[in-house]
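The following block was generated as part of the benchmark described in Methods. Ligand: 2,6-diaminopimelic acid.
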Amino acid sequence: MKSLHQLISQFPYAYEWLNEKEVTITGMTSDSRNVADGHLFICIKGYTVDGHDYIDQAVNQGAVAVIVEKEVVRQDIAVIRVNDSLRVMSYLANRLYNFPTNDLHMIGITGTNGKTSITYLLEAIFKQHQEKTALIGTIQLKIGEETFPIKNTTPEPSFLFQHFALMQEAEVDHCIMEVSSHALKEGRVRGIDYDIAVLTNLTQDHLDFHQTMADYRHAKERLFQQLGNRYDSERPKYAIINLDDAHSASFIDVTAQPVITYGLSEASDIYAKDIELYADHSKYTVVVRGEAITIETKLIGEFNVYNSLAAIAVAYVSNVPLAVIASSFATIKGVKGRFEAVDSNKAYSVIIDYAHTPDSLENVLETARSFAKGKVYCVIGCGGDRDKTKRPLMAEVSDRLSDYTLLTSDNPRSEDPLQIIEDMKKGMQSSAFTIEVDRRLAIEKAISKARAGDVIIIAGKGHETYQIINGTTYPFDDYQIAQTFMMKDLGEDK
Ligand SMILES: CC(=O)N[C@H]1[C@@H](OP(=O)(O)OP(=O)(O)OC[C@H]2O[C@@H](n3ccc(=O)[nH]c3=O)[C@H](O)[C@@H]2O)O[C@H](CO)[C@@H](O)[C@@H]1O[C@H](C)C(=O)N[C@@H](C)C(=O)N[C@H](CCC(=O)O)C(=O)O
Ligand SMILES: Nc1ncnc2c1ncn2[C@@H]1O[C@H](COP(=O)(O)OP(=O)(O)OP(=O)(O)O)[C@@H](O)[C@H]1O
Ligand SMILES: N[C@H](CCC[C@H](N)C(=O)O)C(=O)O
Ligand SMILES: [Mg+2]
């Protein structure tokens, strides 16, 4: 809690009081729907609506002050005009909550695929080392065992800083967060003092937002530029980079901090060798600056070897002993909705996965192929209001790597589901596919085709428990739908 005058006492931005008033600020937000008594409401001009239009709602809910970019005349509340309210929000949130990231060990993970997976691997490792964690990412925000729903993978600054303060109060040791390219480009993570930045990989996604791969890469590079330029022996900083990624050199180039590389060759500081991949577990040796440990884990596929290397690198520079790291892998059962096998006693497997990019789908289908004794089926759709150019590419991957594809809907959002499928269809070379716009029916059709030894990949929605069609959100859970149908699926040979 601070007075507004205190909050702006050393304000480094140009500003103008449109109505000067001494008020006490209890919290802040840029979403009028979340305003509570004593809040500062920050008006942001968004892509769809303008936050300035919600001042009345914010005041009705208890806002005592607003930050605006426009001419706003009000006598009842304090009004300050600035040039860039989003930038100012990061600064004010940092001050209101007393610079909470200065006392937290902040780990930021960026890259196209693997971010969520790595956050959960790190949670397991730090737990094994008796340290307290917080996670921020696609599935949820989590402080210790307490979970909070989340709208974006990387939320806006006032939400972030409010929760960093809660983490500080809860004596969290490590805050492990996914940092999306949208957040980096929109400046949602300004002012966060990261200690470790991780790059998983960079392949095509989000070209609707970034237009070019170069812009997408520049956005992700900002995390590494933000890692600071000072060398502080009390609090060393590290850039952890997947050396096998085609873009690794430019990420190494932009950071001033020590770089730790990981990969599958001896050229990396931390690498895996003697990799044995099975249908239900994996085993490999990880060499960490000359010292070797054996990892045995239920995580499946080579892409998860990469994810585990990233997590091991972070844990290693965070002073977790290698023996503790190795033992923690025995506790990891997998990550919700990431290559998650549906529990059943069938002779075929159904796997729920969050692959929603060409590269992730390729990884997952290659993994399925490597152990399938029978056919591989893929149920796949693409999200509406998202990168249209990835649609035919994802269909092409499914056509090439599975024996049969069911083209269906993901979250069509505001788009026509059949048009999305038409866009996907352009990538299909073979005729081994069916179109079934209803995702539930597509899942059921795929399962009813399955015979002993077959593998069905249901891709794109992973942990999601909803489907957005024509702007409306309906309950929808790939896992439950698949499991319910499997229990009824008593066909021959099953
Ligand atoms: C394209 C994009 O990045 N959109 C983000 C943007 O929304 P926007 O500009 O459309 O916001 P808006 O609805 O116009 O609202 C403008 C302002 O008015 C406020 N408002 C709005 C309505 C109201 O009733 N009251 C109110 O105060 C809003 O809180 C906001 O401050 O700002 C919002 C607030 O920060 C974000 O929630 C929103 O993310 C939307 C939901 C989204 O879907 N974003 C995706 C693309 C995204 O960011 N994804 C990445 C992960 C991607 C990945 O790695 O795969 C993520 O970090 O989530
Ligand atoms: N290291 C990896 N390389 C390639 N594909 C991966 C990797 N790790 C996971 N995947 C695939 O990508 C999917 C998404 O994984 P995960 O949720 O961990 O990624 P993410 O980066 O958090 O994605 P998002 O951008 O949606 O937040 C998984 O279901 C799997 O199919
Ligand atoms: N973070 C990603 C998730 C995509 C998940 C997929 N199910 C979809 O809805 O497209 C995005 O917002 O683009
Ligand atoms: Mg994620």
